[in-house]
């Protein structure tokens, strides 16, 4: 069996030094659509180094994204075909605001392996700390088609009850035709997002947008719309990737304020406008500091 759950879970964590600077942050922000309009003061917080605020989702690519989803597929006990792999979900926990430049140690390991029957789900956990202590923790849920069925633990359900009532805010964000080509320069070189032939092998008629690009676009929309543009208010950010996005499409981002949650969490649903609001991000919650 290509996935040996016991071996994957018992493998020694991998640690390595990562570093990033303001150029990396600026490139990431452009990769998720920041800078429109280019001279808007609210956008210059993301695109001008002298005013730079770091969107927390930058943590998913800091240090060129390694160790991360792709590196998780090379750990002991894991030997799978990249064309069968999809990013199923992502959870980010911020321990303190992200600096615009830094050096840190990233430690990655397989935290869980779940048997979903027709697929396996690997939870790749990356913990990052610098000289001052923990910075962030990333959990990436890696969905591997055709690798389930060994009778293992199915794991917890990621499904949440539907939001109640109409959204508090709804915004639309246009995805550029070259968005995936720009975003991949931040470290995710999976050809699924650029090569039409590879996309066909994976079952898609054309390259698709990185799930983490949609993830970043969505967090920026929430921060700009409901969090007063204050990136430091974000404490946690979790989502389930429910469908694909094609470059050139329009994202509809619906937001609900959740009363009675620490700091006031925000529930989010994201859909593709041109495909009859087909869901692309589901079970999405942005948690705030109390």
Written description of the protein model:
By secondary structure, the protein is of the alpha+beta class. The chain has seven helices and ten strands. Strands 1-3-4-5-2-7-10-9-8-6 form a ten-stranded antiparallel sheet. The N and C termini lie far apart (45 Å). The mean pLDDT is 91.
- Which sequence of strands runs across the widest sheet? 1-3-4-5-2-7-10-9-8-6
Count every beta strand, where a strand is a DSSP E run of 2 or more residues. 10
Bulk shape: globular
Residue windows where pLDDT falls under 50 for at least 5 positions:
none
Query: For the residues shown, what is the average pLDDT?
Result: 91
* Alpha plus pi helix count: 7
Fraction in helix:
10-25%
The separation of the N and C termini measures: 45 Å
Strand content: 25-35%
Q: What about the largest sheet? A: 10 strands, antiparallel
Order of helices and strands: HEHHHEEEEEHHHEEEE
| Structural class based on helices, strands and sheet pairing | alpha+beta
Keywords:
globular; alpha+beta; ten-stranded antiparallel β-sheet; 290 residues; single chain
Q: Secondary-structure blueprint of this entry?
A:
Blueprint: H1 5-10, E1 14-20, H2 22-31, H3 41-47, H4 69-72, E2 85-94, E3 102-115, E4 119-130, E5 133-145, E6 169-174, H5 179-183, H6 196-201, H7 211-226, E7 234-241, E8 250-257, E9 266-272, E10 278-288
Antiparallel strand pairs: 1-3, 2-5, 2-7, 3-4, 4-5, 6-8, 7-10, 8-9, 9-10
How is this structure best summarized?
The protein is α+β, with helices and mostly antiparallel strands.
């Amino acid at each position: 069996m290509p996935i040996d759950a016991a071996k994957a879970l018992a493998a020694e964590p991998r640690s390595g030094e990562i570093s990033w600077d303001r150029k990396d942050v600026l490139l990431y922000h452009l990769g998720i659509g920041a800078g429109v309009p280019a001279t808007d003061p609210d956008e210059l917080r993301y695109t001008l180094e002298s005013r730079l605020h770091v969107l927390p989702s930058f943590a998913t690519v800091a240090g060129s994204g390694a160790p991360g989803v792709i590196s998780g597929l090379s750990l002991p006990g894991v030997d799978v075909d990249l064309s069968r792999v999809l990013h199923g979900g992502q959870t980010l926990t911020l321990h303190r605001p992200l600096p615009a430049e830094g050096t840190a140690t990233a430690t990655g390991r397989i935290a869980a392996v779940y048997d979903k029957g027709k697929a396996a789900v690997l939870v790749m956990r990356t913990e990052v700390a610098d000289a001052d202590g923990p910075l962030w923790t990333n959990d990436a849920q890696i969905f591997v088609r055709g690798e389930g069925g060994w009778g293992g633990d199915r794991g917890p359900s990621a499904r949440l009850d539907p939001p109640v009532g109409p959204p508090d805010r709804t915004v639309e964000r246009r995805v550029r035709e070259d968005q995936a080509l720009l975003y991949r320069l931040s470290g995710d070189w999976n050809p699924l997002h650029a090569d039409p032939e590879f996309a066909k092998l994976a079952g898609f008629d054309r390259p698709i947008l990185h799930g983490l690009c949609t993830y970043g676009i969505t967090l920026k929309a929430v921060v700009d719309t409901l969090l007063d543009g204050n990136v430091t208010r974000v404490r946690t950010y979790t989502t389930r990737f429910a469908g694909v996005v094609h470059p050139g499409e329009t994202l509809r981002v619906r937001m609900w304020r959740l009363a009675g949650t620490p700091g006031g969490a925000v529930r989010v649903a994201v859909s593709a406008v041109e495909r009859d609001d087909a869901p692309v991000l589901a079970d999405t919650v942005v948690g705030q500091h109390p």
